[in-house]
Amino acid sequence: MKILKSKNETRREILQEKAEGISIGFVPTMGYLHDGHLNLVAQAVKKCDTVVASIYVNPAQFSPKEDLSTYPRNLDRDLSLLQKYGTKYVFCPDDKTMYGPKHLTWIVTEKLATKLCGKSRENHFRGVTTVVAKLLNIVQPDFMFMGEKDFQQVVVLETMIADLDFPTRIVRCPTIRESDGLALSSRNSYLSPEERIRAASLYKSLLMAKNLYSTGITESERVRAEMTDLIEYNKGIVDYIEVIDSETLESIPELEKGCRVALAVKFGNTRLIDNMEI
Ligand code: AMP
What we know:
- With 278 residues, the chain is of the alpha/beta class.
- It is 38% helix and 19% strand.
- It has a six-stranded parallel beta sheet with strand order 1-4-3-2-5-6, sandwiched between helices.
- The N and C termini lie far apart (40 Å).
- Adenosine monophosphate (AMP) is lined by residues 29-30, 36-37, 40, 146-147, 149-150, 173, 175-176, 183-186.
């Protein structure tokens, strides 16, 4: 496995492979890898000849109040896991490499970026789309593997790719969960043991939504209220619970087949997100 720090070297290595007709799969991450990330790598290894991962904690997607400086990191462990799972290249740039002092250009997916997480995380998706556009221009992959755990992120990036004609296809991969249903996340490491137990209520509340729907209760308000009760009983502070159309991310008044229930909840200082297809 080769560790690449410069943009030019990364482009050169990958273009050489592409010239030989080899397909490139790309897994962008912010590191502190868990089985959710590693499943993306495993899917990429299955589908593509060469797998490139990136590890970069992108400052542009954090607001000044957020956890950029404390975001968990463990590069040595990440690299050995990526190697074990069959990654050929890891791009690990530093901030100077990714953002020059004159950086002025931002990509905004209007409408989608201001819904759900975009309401409380101003500029978050602008940071995500801009860094992913840069990574796609550097790596030039055929396929990019992304988790449905970050559902809004996948929809925003699919839209960016379609609107700006990037020659890359996104492969959506399912959310990987702990045995009690909590979606794996690097941020789970912030939870106290008690918060960790209580955080399983997120998955339970999503299952509850699905069950209510299957018993004929489809009114979004009613489902949101029941989910809120369960989460608040577990001391979670709800940022949002929304029943949304899976393409537009617009809130809808009734649950219907194929819609999503998405949520963001804080346990202590840790903000967690999750979602489920109905
Ligand atoms: P991050 O390192 O949080 O930026 O995540 C990098 C990629 O891993 C994104 O495509 C995420 O959606 C994906 N991911 C994170 N957690 C999970 C999970 N529990 N299951 C599946 N994919 C995940």
